[in-house]
Every structure is written in structure tokens, then in C-alpha cells.
Write a structure and sequence with these properties.
Shape: elongated
Distance between the termini: 60 Å
Helix content: 40-55%
Number of helices: 22
CATH topology of the largest domain: Hypothetical protein af1432
Strand content: 5-15%
Number of domains: 3
Number of strands: 15
Largest sheet: 8 strands, antiparallel
């Protein structure tokens, strides 16, 4: 309660200062921007964004939808008094006159009506038959308890604003597309074309909820296939999306990226230009993992002649944004800024959390459970060297192995021979396995706190229960060394696969997985942890440096604490 009163007092003081300035200051765009920034500074909004970002985004949509200035400005301040489902207010109702002086009477009235009216009442009023009989609409006022009498033009403006508000902020929890196209389709049918400018992009919108759900599922499937390197499959999914709804910007841009990856530059450029045009007509992104301006930066990079494709086509658009900025010569943007959407979040997590497990979770989107081993150079190198690797592994004596110490439920015997153990290199075991060591150190393997490289030996009739790996920063590569015939396999997510001697499996062990050997012989595989391919080189270097720093500090502290404990123990012995 005390915090609420303090915030209210702060807003009143800010509003008072604005009121004093407005009395003798000319109203202009720069003053509008400064005022919006000042009065919304302390207020958050959905998805961890500031309120001001949502308000500006709503205005951008209304501008793209070719709405008149009074509707745009009403949209810019539409939540300034709070709304029926957003209870924070940046400006008190008693200060409406201040806002009228700033943006004009019509725009301020629109902002007030939006704040005072429940969204379902706006839709119900637009659906009512009194529009056909030209009766003026009436909306209940949640502030006064009375009814506001509207012109048909104001009702149109409220409905368009409602649609822009929903389009700007609706997304799934992971910022991938959410359900709003079907709602806009329903609302579009309520617009009276004689009362205002119907947005051109909405005239093409005809979507049911079922169709939209299928569209989102198809897009997520395409993203999973991009992440797994299945570009032809992803392209087919994106082309199907285009056939179902040929007006989405992001499907067009992903097609452009895949065409660039396959050296079809001319087609890629045309698709990028079309994607950028669609973005501008919508005024917002459908896939909100990037803002509209960030997607436009990706489009501009794709439009450049002789553009080089990304080294790896990640399903995470933050990686594409980094590539686009570099490709367009924006060298002034350092890696930390270019990938700030992920890196900043990670830094905030590790500085704020009291849970050590959070240090191992990086803000990456979910990828597939299984990856194609052929997409990884190290898998090819391991498979080519299989005869030498097998000879090294089978030559190890029993003393090189010990029981796996992790607290994972199991039946039977599961033993390991460690080569690299969370940042520590086992010199003796690496010396015994020179071929494995050479390949591992020549590739981008995880030899830090986040990873392990070891030989896993599972005795007959052993079952390792379902569990998850501790971090999402890595993938796990298994090379089959000795695989008995029979019921011997691994399940990752919902899919079960068997090992093959001399062949690699690559999967994300952050997914739930379990393994078993229900045969009469040992199963032996080489396990090598790899960095997630969605991580950029700068991110990998940062994480490697961070992990090395933590390891060195841990070693130093261990020596320091041990020396102090020994000194204390020696002193106590002197008193005995």
C-alpha cells in the first residue's frame, strides 16, 4: 500500500510539472515524445517491456494502417489512464485537460474512452443493430458509472484502436506468434467503411480460429526444421503457409533466407523486398521474437546485392539480426549490443538469481530434440576415425572406468572414463586416447563447466532412468563404439533411437531422456558435448570466458580455504 501511494505521488508530481510546461509551450511531436517518456518511465507492461514501448508500437500500427492523426495520437496515449485490464495509470483522470492541451481534444477523448470502456462493450456496441438505424452508440464508463454517448466515427476509432492494441502485444510466452488474426478478422467485419479509413491490410484478412491455430503450428514446425538443418522441409512448410495466407512478412523472410542459403540470390532478394513491404503494411511483427524494426534490418541485409549467407541458418532470429548488422557494415554495434536480447537477459539472471541452476540456462528458444549428425563437422571426423577410436577405447583397462557419480536413478552398472570433466582435462586418459583428443580439440566442443567428454560403458541389464541435462547451452554427440544387438537404445523426448557402431547420434540432452541395455553384452559409446549451433561465436567466447573465470576462482578459493583449514587444524593440535 505504501509503495502504491508513493508511486501515485510521483505520478502527480510529474504530471504537475508537465502541466506547468504545457501552459506556455507549443504542442509538437518532440514535446509529445518527451512527455510520454516522462510520465510512463516507471511503468512496466506485458512481456517485460516498458509501457512506453507498447504505446509507441500501437501508434506505429495505426500509422501503417493509414489512420488520421487524432486516432494515432489517441492510440499513443490509449493506456495512459489505465484500462479495464491494465490497472496502472500514468496520468490521473483529474489531469485530462493537460493531455488535451498536448494532443488535442479528439485524441484525448479517444484515449479516455478506450480507458473508460470495457473491450467487450466496444465490440458489443459495434455489433449492435443500432448502427444500421443510425442510433448513436452508448458505452458504460467504468470511472463514473454513467454512459458515454459516441459518434459513429468515435466507435470506429475505438474498434480500430482495439485491433491495433491487440496486434501490437499478442504473442506466445516464447514470443513466437500468438492468436490474434482470427480476432482481427471478426472485428474487421464490424467496421463501417463510411465512418473511417479501413486499413488496407485488414481487407485481406479472412481467418478462423482453427485456421490460425494450424498456421501457428505450421510456422513452429518450420522453425524446428530450420533449427535442425532440414531446410528443404522447412521451405515446404513455409510455402504451405504462404498458400494459406499470402500476407505474412516472416514466412516470406525465412523463405528468402533459405533461398540465399541455397545460392538462389535473385529469388531471395525478391522475397526479402516482399517481406519488407508486408511488414510496413502491418506496422508490427507477427513473430515477436524481433521487433518490426529488427525484422526490417534482416530484410535490408537480404536485399543487398552479392550478400553472403549466414554461416549457420539458426531458427533464433537474434542470430540473424547479428548477421544482418554485420553484413550491412554496422561494425559500431558490438557483439554485446547486437545480441542484447539474449545476453542481457542472461546477465540479469545470473546477477539476480539465488538458484545456482539458473547459471546453466541460457535464453535460447527450444530447438528439436534430435539433430542430423551430418550437419556437424565433428561427427564426420569421429566417424571417419572410428577404427582408430575403437581400438583406443577397447584398449582401456578396467581401472580407467568408475561408476557414474551423478544422482540419476538406475538399475545395473553404468561406468564412465572421463577425458574432459566440466573444465578439467584428464591428462592420463587423454594420453591414452590420442585420436579422440586430437579431434575433440580441433572442433568447437564444450570443454568448460557446461560440458563433458567421456566414454560411457553400460553393463548388461542396465537402465538409466529418465532425466534431463543441467544446461541448454550444449548438444550431446554419441559415437557408437560397441553396440550389442537386441533391446539397447536411447529415448530423447518422444523419439527412441538405437546406436550404430561407427555412427554418431546428436541430440539435445536438456530434453528428458533415458537409456537402457537389456542385452547380454556391454554397450560402449563415446560422448562429446557440442555448443548449441544457435549460439554465435561471440556468445560462445563469452560463455567460455565466464566458465573459465568461475573455474579459476573455484580452484583458487579451494586452495585458500584448504590452507586456512590446515592452519586452524595445526593450531588446535598445539592446544591438545
Amino acid at each position: 500500500m505504501k509503495d502504491h501511494l508513493a508511486m501515485a505521488g510521483l505520478m502527480n508530481r510529474i504530471s504537475a510539472r508537465i502541466s506547468e510546461r504545457l501552459a506556455d509551450t507549443q504542442t509538437d511531436e518532440s514535446l509529445i515524445e518527451r512527455t510520454l517518456t516522462e510520465i510512463t518511465r516507471a511503468l512496466p507492461h506485458a512481456h517485460g517491456r516498458p509501457l512506453a514501448a507498447h504505446l509507441r508500437g500501437t501508434r506505429e500500427i495505426l500509422r501503417a494502417w493509414q489512420q488520421p492523426m487524432w486516432i494515432q495520437l489517441g492510440g499513443l496515449f490509449h493506456s495512459i489512464y489505465g484500462t479495464d485490464d491494465y490497472r496502472n495509470s500514468a496520468l490521473a483522470i483529474s489531469q485530462r485537460e493537460d493531455l488535451r492541451l498536448l494532443i488535442g481534444k479528439r485524441a484525448e477523448r479517444l484515449a479516455y474512452l478506450f480507458a473508460a470502456s470495457r473491450k467487450q462493450d466496444i465490440v458489443a456496441s459495434a455489433s449492435a443493430s443500432d448502427l444500421q438505424t443510425r442510433q448513436p452508440p452508448r458505452l458504460p464508463d467504468r470511472f463514473t458509472g454513467a454512459h458515454n454517448l459516441l459518434t459513429r466515427e468515435e466507435l470506429f476509432a475505438l474498434l480500430v484502436l482495439l485491433m491495433a492494441n491487440q496486434a501490437e502485444q499478442t504473442a506466445a510466452k516464447d514470443s513466437l506468434p500468438g492468436n490474434w488474426l482470427a480476432d482481427l478478422t471478426a472485428h474487421r467485419q464490424l467496421l463501417d467503411e463510411n465512418a473511417g479509413v479501413v486499413p488496407p491490410v485488414l481487407q485481406k484478412l479472412h481467418f478462423s480460429r482453427e485456421q490460425e491455430t494450424k498456421l501457428i503450428a505450421a510456422y513452429r514446425s518450420a522453425m524446428n526444421n530450420v533449427g535442425a538443418g532440414h531446410l528443404h522441409t522447412a521451405l515446404r512448410s513455409l510455402e504451405e503457409i504462404e498458400q494459406a495466407f499470402p500476407h505474412l512478412p516472416e514466412s516470406c523472410l525465412w523463405r528468402a533466407l533459405i533461398e540465399l542459403q541455397t545460392e538462389n540470390r535473385a529469388h531471395s532478394k525478391r522475397l526479402a523486398e516482399e517481406g519488407a513491404s508486408r511488414l510496413r503494411s502491418w506496422g508490427t511483427a507477427w513473430d515477436k521474437r524481433l521487433t518490426i524494426h529488427e525484422w526490417l534490418r534482416v530484410a535490408r541485409a537480404l536485399e543487398q546485392p552479392d550478400m553472403c549467407a549466414p554461416d549457420f541458418l539458426s531458427s533464433d532470429p537474434a542470430y540473424l539480426l547479428l548477421w544482418a548488422d554485420r553484413a550491412c557494415g554496422k561494425t559500431a554495434i558490438c557483439a554485446g549490443q547486437a545480441i542484447s536480447a539474449r545476453l542481457s537477459t542472461f546477465l540479469q539472471d545470473i546477477t539476480a538469481t539465488k538458484n545456482p541452476a539458473r547459471l546453466n540456462v541460457y535464453p535460447l528458444p527450444d530447438g528439436p530434440a534430435w539433430y542430423r549428425a551430418s550437419e556437424f563437422a565433428i561427427a564426420k571426423a569421429l566417424e571417419e576415425a572410428y577404427p582408430a577410436i575403437r581400438e583406443e577405447v577397447l584398449a582401456l583397462d578396467d581401472l580407467a572406468f568408475h561408476s557414474e557419480s551423478e544422482r540419476i536413478r538406475r538399475t545395473g552398472s553404468w561406468q564412465v572414463c572421463m577425458l574432459y570433466e566440466r573444465g578439467r582435462r584428464d591428462e592420463e586418459n587423454c594420453r591414452r586416447c590420442p585420436t579422440i583428443t586430437r579431434i575433440v580439440e580441433a572442433h568447437d566442443t564444450v570443454r568448460t563447466l557446461a560440458g563433458l567428454i567421456y566414454i560411457s560403458r553400460m553393463a548388461p541389464q542396465t537402465h538409466v532412468a529418465a532425466h534431463r541435462g543441467p544446461t541448454n547451452m550444449r548438444l550431446r554427440c554419441h559415437l557408437g563404439i560397441q553396440v550389442p544387438e537386441g533391446d539397447c537404445a536411447i529415448r530423447v523426448g518422444s523419439e527412441t533411437r538405437k546406436w550404430t557402431e561407427g555412427k554418431c547420434l546428436v541430440f539435445d540432452d536438456f530434453y528428458e531422456h533415458e537409456a537402457w541395455n537389456h542385452t547380454a553384452a556391454d554397450r560402449i559409446v563415446l560422448i562429446v558435448d557440442l555448443w548449441r549451433p544457435e549460439l554465435t561465436r561471440e556468445e560462445r567466447e563469452f560463455l567460455t570466458g565466464l566458465h573459465n573465470y568461475v573455474l579459476l576462482q573455484a580452484q583458487s578459493l579451494h586452495k585458500y580455504w584448504t590452507a586456512n583449514a590446515d592452519s586452524q587444524s595445526a593450531k588446535r593440535k598445539g592446544y591438545d
